[in-house]
Structure formats: structure tokens, C-alpha cells
Amino acid sequence: MTDSVVLDPVDLEILRLLQNDARTTYRDLAAQVGVAPSTCLDRVSRLRRGGVILGHALRVDPARLGRGLQALLSVQVRPHRRELVGPFVERIRALPEARTVFHVTGPDDYLVQVAVRDMADLQRLVLDEFTSRREVARVETRLIFQQWECGPLLPPQSAPGAPTAYPGDGSP
Known about the structure:
By secondary structure, this protein is α+β, with helices and mostly antiparallel strands.
């Protein structure tokens, strides 16, 4: 059974604001949600302890780092066995070009987002780091023309006025 954290409208607003700008100070955050800074700090600490807030991330523009071409690689691994999956995933995660790795259902086993310099670099990556591996049966490449960030991730809507349960620290 999954324990859950109860999120009220103030918690949800804190999450929304922090996802839009994680550098917001507790003082500014508290003013925006209408609570005292100490209360805001306590709420954010509870969200961290509960596993709702997982950390802070710095986003960079791959093109500004000389990696202006992005692609999604659909990868089929055969045989798809646990003793091959772990090392495969760790190897892919260690590649400087790899941005995200998804283990997916369907005809492919993995979807890997990569950022490379150009087409020649993409070809090198696919041939040297993917198809050369014994367990990789197939790689299909899709270029990313454009990417958009979406809004903050919040729990699904519940009944109006009801607190929202979210998996977390064991609070009822």
C-alpha cells in the first residue's frame, strides 16, 4: 500500500510556483501563497521529506553547448532479460549525449533522447554506442525539430474543496 501526503491548495500553489522558478526565495514564495515564511519553509521541508519534491535541476540549452541536433532513439534489446537490461541502461546513461532514457512497452524496449553536434555525430553515436552492442537488435531514429516545456505537474483534480492525496511520507 502506498502512503500518501495530503496536499491542500497552499501546497499545490507552492509546487506550481517552485516548478516555474525553483530559485524563488522562501520569503517571496510565502508572500505569493499567503503564509508566513517559516510556515512556507515547513511546508517545503514536508514536501521534500515526503518525496513530492525530488530536488532542483538546472536546465541548459543543448544548442548553446554545441549539441544543436536532438533525436529520439527507439531501441529494441534482445534478449530482453534483466541481466542485460541493467548494464545496458547504465551504459546509455553514462553517454554524454544521452539526455533521458525511458523503459517503454510496445515493440521497442527503450526510448532515448540524445543531443549531438550534427548528423555525423548522430550517426557515430548510433553505430558505435548502440547498434555495435550485442544486445541491441534494432535502433530507429527520429529527429526532434522543436521541443516545448509543459506546465507544472500537479496531482489530478479531486472533488472541489477536498484535499488531494499524493504518494509520500505516510500521512493519512
